[in-house]
What we know:
Blueprint: H1 6-12, H2 15-34, H3 39-46, H4 50-57, H5 65-75, H6 79-82
Helix pairs in contact: 3-4
Amino acid sequence: MSEMSKNEKMARKDPLVQRLSADLGSRLLDVRTSEGLPQTKLAEMVGTKHPRISNLEGGLVDVRISDIVKLARALDVDPGTLLDLAAYKLEDYPLPPPDNHARL
């Protein structure tokens, strides 16, 4: 897997990105298990590998919109079932202060 870009690293520090990733993962796990679908089968259905599904369910990776659509289609649910963006407000998740420490 490729190394995370600077923008991806910065995004992972954003508390809203962290919350959305965790919530998507939790909802994905709930829907997948309620359907009795193994991670390996879901991975096959969306054209990825088992570890990617595991990482998504664990909230460990940022997800693309195209990933949400593929997952929703595979699970036969609306995309909003997996990620309800209307439930979040920016002011509830302020950005942490910038890390201005120089590298040694």
